[in-house]
Batch of 2 targets.
Target 1
Amino acid sequence: MLNVPSQAFPAPGSQQRAASGGRSKVPLKQGRSLMDWIRLTKSGKDLTGLKGRLIEVTEEELIKHNKKDDCWVCIRGLVYNVSPYMEYHPGGEDELMRAAGSDGTDLFDQVHRWVNYESMLKECLVGRMAVKPVAIAKENHEKKFLNGILLKSKVPDLPAKEISPSYDWFQTESLVTIVIYTKQKDMDSESVIVDYQDGCFRAEILIKDYSYLLHTELSHEIQEDISVRVAEKTGKVEIVLKKKVNISWKYLGHPLENHNSFTEHKEKGLYYRKCKLISKVDVTHDTKLYCLMLPPGTHLQVPIGQHVYLKQTVTGTEVVKPYTPVLESLHSDLQEPLHPHNKYIYLMIKIYRAGLFSPHFDCLQIGDCVSLSSPEGNFKKSQLQDLEELFLLAAGTGFTPMIKILNYALNITSLRKVKLMFFNKTEGDILWRNQLEQLADKERRFEVEFILSEPTCEWTGKQGRISLPLLSEFVKRSSEDSGVLICICGPAPFTEQGIRLLKDLNFSQEEVHSFTA
Ligand code: FAD
Ligand code: NAP
């Protein structure tokens, strides 16, 4: 619902905008970009009409404010006057009006739960929803400390097959081992995210659409190198902490927010940790490869096809944008990677000169920090199993999710063919062209084709935009019953058109995976 310009991205007049045909769903008026909004919020103008006063809002009051010029929306218990924001909303006024005078939390979570609305709308805050009197549950004081007993977690209404995990812990003289029993057969270490920062320990276990969280302030200090072991067959996760001082712990720690809870993943806010910029290397004239180092107490692996969010404060407002981690290079398997995979994250980012986030990010110096979220996304490695042919359709930085997919897929011996069709404006825009050509020379199952929309007269390859003739020639099944997957990623209208064309070519929904936020 409330979002930053990425939904209308590329915006009108942007360097990304196609010569013909509107690309953003709702074109914003001149002077209505996110930067303009940030400027307005800093101008000192009274945006709520309450002169900075915060009030308690009853349901009856909220409902009354349901018109464009008087529109209040509640998100997670806080009420905002969004009327001044209407014209700045990239999704358009109508989309925002769907939540007018009501609780828009679900609508917000469905579209952009990652957007930091608290920061974006802080000058529009009207107040809190008034709390209805409810019977307060008697607090269980016995649970104040975590003492190693199997606590019963806060469990939502789960589908019958989902069982809440439980945990236990034990210690030796120098180690504390936390054991989480997930009872899941297909657990892997990508499903375990651990953070230890400022004495707080946080372990999140992802189980399908759910997430189990341990969150405690540890009773004693530990060293920062934490190890994680996952028994895939039984779903047992062991997290081994090294004590700083070899004394016996009486209890594990004090529970923190949502400790020992098992909830739908989308209900949880994004968790960020600060990562250090280690290097930046040019890829093309406007795109760079950035290496970020995770903090020492973090265990996090970004699964293939998933993205993370970066968060920075731009002119006093927190801005969040998604980026898709890539490999250090397409030859990563050939040589020892410079950095171990589980401590470093590589991002290939295009810098838009007039963009809000990317130029700001590019100003970071080596050694500076940026906040990075846990991974998100709905691509599953299992989609690559039992395939015979894989087709990748990428435009511009839409190439980023294809990098890990390509690398993983070429290690599947049953896969007979992997083809990448890569759309760019000019030759100079092609990301990792040399590496792709070298890979195609070396690996007979891999083919790459570059299509340019603005070629010079020297270009002898294909040109144009995504079209039926191009696709029908490129995306061909070798036999009627061969297992096929087509991955597509690029500017939203490119992806949407590609999906329509693939449907016309009789590929089923299951055979097409598109990447979005
Ligand atoms: P924006 O501020 O969004 O601006 C982009 C362009 O639009 C600029 O040229 C700007 O001048 C113009 N513009 C903005 N607002 C207006 C306006 N109102 N009127 C006129 N012009 C305007 N990108 C990567 O580079 N690498 C990745 O790996 C990557 N992964 C992604 C993964 C996902 C799931 C998604 C959804 C996107 C991904 N992106 C990636 C894109 C990325 O999230 C950002 O959208 C991109 O970096 C641009 O953000 P920005 O704030 O720098 O630019
Ligand atoms: P770009 O350089 O502007 O465009 C790349 C190619 O796509 C060009 O050939 C361009 O043709 C073509 N194209 C653009 N719009 C088109 C349309 N409507 N129909 C057909 N072809 C079109 O691209 P970019 O600046 O790198 O942007 C990449 C986009 O990918 C961004 O929008 C980013 O958000 C998105 N992305 C998404 C994900 C994800 O969802 N996981 C990951 C990474 C990137 P023209 O020259 O004719 O415009």
Target 2
Amino acid sequence: MDSHTLMFGVIGDPIRHSKSPVMLNRAFRESGINGAYAAFHVTPDQLQQAIAGVRGLGFRGLNVTIPHKIEVMAFLDEISDGAKAAGAVNTIVNDNGRLIGYNTDGIGYVRSLKEEAEPNLNGKTIVVLGAGGAARGILWALAQESPAAILVANRTESKASELAASFSPDYRISAIPWSNLQEACSTADVVINTTSVGMSPNVADLPLDPSWLKPGSVASDLIYNPLKTAFLQQAEQLGCRIHGGLGMFIYQGAYAFEYWTGKPAPVSAMREVVLASFSTI
Ligand code: ATR
């Protein structure tokens, strides 16, 4: 670091578990960019001050994680269409003093799904399980790929209906009753778990019965702890292609890197360093 170093960071509460500093610092080094990225523990009562600090110190960019992704929007100068649709910001670009909020979670997820499991989502039928913030975050990005239909199922059915109704009908996003999930899965090309069911420490729990999926279809899970959930393990044994949540984390960081630097992200180096950091826990 020297007096030319571009400054970046991630804010959250808690934040000490974050893999973003390891991943982004590796990306800067790999790309020959004089940048540095640190994690900042920011509590909700300090959020406004933290954003003022970004302006005052001229940070080039910031990632925002739980619990600030919604509240931070009030302190920015501009919000991208994707972030508006997701209702949340996870990446801020400081463009000569103008703070612009983006959401790279949804597009990061879709890029990962296309790179790692299903390159063409056009005309496909996609089932999304869950209707919380994680589901909202990926729906807009999935809809940009022009699938035939996106069917949202949630334990609390009213939340799925509200979520689907919040998008334009052009996006072909609709809610289905929980009782129709088995039938929907039997014809779907991609089934995505956005719920927390199966996350460590409850690694044996299943969000749905994997035998409902069509062999050859894609089973995708947003969870990356564990890297391969019970849902994915069983779906794989039943002949499905599987897609875990780590790629979403890598590619949300890749898009942030690209928005900040204008250069292609060194994705394989980023993945390598994150995987290595898991094995040292
Ligand atoms: P996030 O913002 O990470 O998506 P969230 O808003 O709390 O988290 O949403 C969690 C999602 O997981 C919800 O869709 C929730 O279903 P409900 O709306 O019915 O609560 C779903 N979920 C959590 N535990 C579940 C379980 N045991 N079975 C089915 N769905 C579950």
